[in-house]
Amino acid sequence: MKPKVVGFVFARGGSKGVPRKNIRPLAGKPLIGHAIDIGLASRHIDRMVVSTDDEEIAAVARRYGADVPFMRPPELATDKAPEWKAWQHAIRAVQDESSGDFDIFVCLPATAPLRAVEDVDACIETLLADSTVDLVITVSPAHHNPYFNMIVLDENRSARLVMEAAGVTNGPIARRQDAPVVYDQTTVCYAARPEFVLNSTRQFDGRVRAVVVPPDRALDIDTELDFQFAEFLLQQEQHRVPWPHSRGHAA
């Protein structure tokens, strides 16, 4: 039997960094519309659900084909509320519907509008391929490396490498190429088993796998500059340039 996969977008109305960013137009489409469109294009996702506390966001989400079967409680829509709890609330709300349980929870944050549908499908397929995996995240090669060029400063503004300050070292590393490879976690996609989310308190409580995506598809919009950069990439259609792992692969 085909697993039932439900995609979610979590979009509260009180964004502070970029006010009303979830429905702000980006390349002629509300930001949340990009996430919904990719979710609906996935060959695995059966339904897209938006969790929001904002009626205007809900109306935009419905216009782009998502369901808004519930409104998020105000206490889960503040800038201090853990999104994990919003995940739990959304899962329970959908499970309480007549449609009942589902097999795979997929979160597609609106703030990653350059994602490709293959990134989403690769996460779902990675989770489906191994029943021992609880959660699949997306990562991208990091521009900076704590073993080589990431620095902490002490109270006297003396500089040390992050890993040396933490007491973790692989010995002197003279070239970036010799440093252990590290990745940035991205907001492109999260795929999880609903029971894991409901019974845990954070991502890394369980067994986590990763799918590597190219940096140009991993842009996370948090500032006005991010918005401008995303607009440029979308207008120039540069976010779909070939990449050695354009299909996405598990790390």
Structure characterization notes:
The protein has 251 residues and is α/β, with parallel strands linked by helices. The chain is 27% helix and 20% strand. A seven-stranded mixed β-sheet has the order 4-1-5-9-6-10-11. Strands 2-3 form a two-stranded antiparallel sheet. It is globular and about 60 Å long. The two termini are 28 Å apart. The model is unreliable at 241-251 (pLDDT under 50).
Chain-wise SSE layout:
Blueprint: E1 5-10, E2 25-26, E3 29-30, H1 31-41, E4 47-51, H2 55-63, H3 83-95, E5 104-107, H4 117-129, E6 135-141, E7 151-153, E8 159-161, H5 162-165, E9 183-192, H6 194-198, E10 208-212, H7 224-236, E11 249-250
Parallel strand pairs: 1-4, 1-5, 6-10
Antiparallel strand pairs: 2-3, 5-9, 6-9, 7-8, 10-11
Instruction: Output the number of helix runs.
Output: 7
- Bin the strand percentage: 15-25%
Main sheet: strands, sense, barrel: 7 strands, mixed
What strand line-up does the widest sheet have?
A: 4-1-5-9-6-10-11
Radius of gyration: 19 Å
Would you tell me the structural class of the helices and strands?
alpha/beta
Estimate the global geometry from the Cα principal axes. Answer: globular
Rounded mean pLDDT score = 89
Distance between the termini: 28 Å
**Could you give the order of the helices and strands?**
EEEHEHHEHEEEHEHEHE
Kindly state the percentage of residues in helix: 25-40%
Low-confidence stretches: 241-251
Number of beta-strand segments: 11
